[in-house]
Specification:
The protein contains 19 helices and two strands. With 420 residues, it is mainly alpha-helical. Among the domains are: 142 residues; 123 residues, Serine Threonine Protein Phosphatase 5, Tetratricopeptide repeat, CATH 1.25.40. Strand 1 and strand 2 form a beta hairpin. Helix 3 packs parallel to helix 7, helix 12 packs antiparallel against helix 13 and helix 13 runs antiparallel to helix 14. The termini are far apart.
Length: 420
């Protein structure tokens, strides 16, 4: 009787842990707010994607209720469905829904650029500013995407996985389920079903690899055919610079640099000066064909043109030509918002003593960034602006806020507080 009581206490504890996990972070991002398993404010036509834990909790609650009613067979199937719905979160993000992946890639790239612009403009990165080692924008095949998905998953989902394993073990010991094999094999079948639903993504990966092989063999027409099939099956490839560079190389080898798509190939661009390269990219961006591949290459041209303007601004900044640097950065931001570019622009504006505009740019950034280290860097930059403008009390407030947000080797804030 005592053992039975202990088992029930353990089960209740595990269920409580699962409830905490469901409320915890299920999807995490480099810059913006993480998404919990249950985001009650997100329920609705525009927020259903945030209600991630609902299927898992529904089947888990159903299983526990059926166990209390003595219906073990039905409870086993409810547990199977709870496990499948839990595993469906990374499965769907990996094979079916590119929303999470694209957002993570974009924010990861911006995060890494903050690391570059902070020391370049005289700031001091805190020790918590670690780079994203996976280089999310450089992924190629599905195994690379799987590693990114591992980074995306938050602690709440992991707690639910561990809690579910513990619960199954306790139920087996208590005799509430006859065998774990009765759970394992149906769950494996559910995983296979998710894989079948993601067949387009698997087919895209196969075509992508085929295109790379044909490119290496010099079969450029065959490579382009395979690449086109790949992106038609999986639009997320439009975010892969490696894939798009290979496509551009195939066009370049097949039709030469006169083809707008061939002009995107890095080796072709390296043979012309910066101004000519920007003109070629602008032409390529304005000349897409109405296909998934054409639109992706057009966006690639826009990104490459923006990179050239940013690189020009960086060189101008290093040479002391701050006016030219500001011109290039504003041009990039006029085409597409970039948090890291806006941060660099604000730093340059501060050095030009355009304090009001620099402050406006930095405050605009704060509204969209939730990463504590990046927020701390923005507050440090605000402190520098206010200190240079002679507003020492406000500067001290900014540095103090920065240190409050990030105490991990935040030498920039410490230095600012010591100087104000």
């Amino acid at each position: 009787m005592k053992v039975v009581g202990q088992q029930w206490i353990l089960m209740i504890a595990v269920v409580c842990i699962l409830a905490v996990g469901a409320q915890g972070v299920w999807i995490s991002y480099p810059l913006s707010l993480p998404i919990p398993g249950l985001d009650w404010q997100g329920v609705g036509p525009a927020g259903w994607r945030r209600f991630l834990a609902a299927p898992f909790l529904f089947f888990l609650a159903s299983a526990l209720l059926l166990l209390l009613l003595g219906r073990q067979r039905s409870a086993s199937w409810a547990l199977v469905m709870a496990c499948v719905s839990l595993l469906a979160v990374p499965g769907v993000a990996w094979l079916l829904d590119a929303t999470w992946l694209n957002r993570y890639i974009e924010e990861g790239v911006q995060y890494d650029k903050f690391q570059f612009y902070i020391p370049l403009s005289g700031g001091i990165p805190s020790t918590s500013f670690d780079p994203y080692l996976n280089s999310p924008d450089k992924y190629q095949y599905l195994p690379d995407r799987a590693r990114i998905i591992v980074d995306i998953l938050g602690w709440g989902w992991s707690v639910c996985v561990l809690g579910m394993l513990a619960l199954l073990g306790l139920l087996r010991r208590a005799g509430k389920i006859s065998s774990l094999h009765n759970i394992f094999w149906p769950v494996l079948g559910g995983v296979v079903v998710i894989g079948l639903m993601g067949m387009n993504t698997l087919r895209a990966d196969l075509n992508y690899r085929t295109g790379d092989q044909r490119l290496g063999l010099g079969d450029y027409t065959g490579a382009l055919k395979a690449y086109t099939l790949a992106i038609n099956c999986d639009p997320v490839l439009a975010s892969s610079p490696v894939y798009l560079q290979n496509v551009a190389k195939a066009y370049y080898q097949l039709r030469g640099a006169d083809d707008p798509r061939g002009q995107l190939y890095a080796d072709a661009l390296s043979k012309v000066n910066q101004e000519r390269a920007k003109a070629l990219l602008a032409f390529s961006a304005a000349s897409p064909d109405d296909s998934a591949l054409g639109r992706a290459l057009s966006k690639m041209a826009e990104r490459k043109e923006a990179e050239l303007w940013v690189n020009q601004s960086v060189r101008a900044y290093k040479n002391g030509d701050l006016g030219t640097a500001v011109f290039g950065l504003r041009r990039v931001l006029a085409a597409k918002d970039s948090p890291s570019t806006r941060f660099f622009l604000a730093r340059v504006l501060g050095q030009l003593r355009e304090f009001d505009e620099a402050e406006r740019q930095l405050k605009q950034l704060l509204s969209g960034i939730q990463n504590a280290s990046v927020q701390a860097a923005i507050y440090n930059a605000l402190g520098d602006v206010h200190a240079a403008a002679g507003h020492l009390e406000q500067a001290r407030t900014d540095y103090a806020m920065s240190y409050k947000l990030d105490k991990s080797g935040n030498l920039w804030a410490i230095k600012g507080l010591g100087g104000t």
